Amino acid sequence: xxxxxxYRKTILQPGEIIVSIRIPKPLxxxxxxxxxxxxxxxxxxxxxxxxxLSLDSGGRVTKARFAYGxxxxxxxxxxxxxxxxxxRRWSTSAARRAQEEISRALRPISDYRGSAEYRLALARSLVxxxxxxxxxxxx
Length: 139
Fold this sequence. Notes:
Blueprint: E1 4-6, E2 9-10, E3 30-36, E4 47-55, E5 61-69, E6 76-77, H1 79-85, H2 92-105, H3 116-138
Antiparallel strand pairs: 1-2, 3-4, 4-5, 5-6
Helix pairs in contact: 1-2, 2-3
């Protein structure tokens, strides 16, 4: 969580390299990675998102993770959006609750890749896309 120190800056010291990363298992039931950029390859993201959910047998969210890149100097998790859906049945209305929290939590940057308003709209729309994909897959 404390690896990123700023835009294109990390806490690595000169001569240090990353030798491994740990990805906890089991992975959530639904995981999606989205990248929105002007070009598909070799481009910095306007917005990047990693969205993940685990559901119980009744379709209620037991764990949610919503993380974004490209909206600030460092990647961010939107804890408020995660909390807004945890314990609720996963649905388009739950996704809308997450979108409302994302609107309150994110304060995107503006630069030549996109305005703050555009980035916020993208971040919200990626939750909607995630909801449609995962609800279809869960059906």
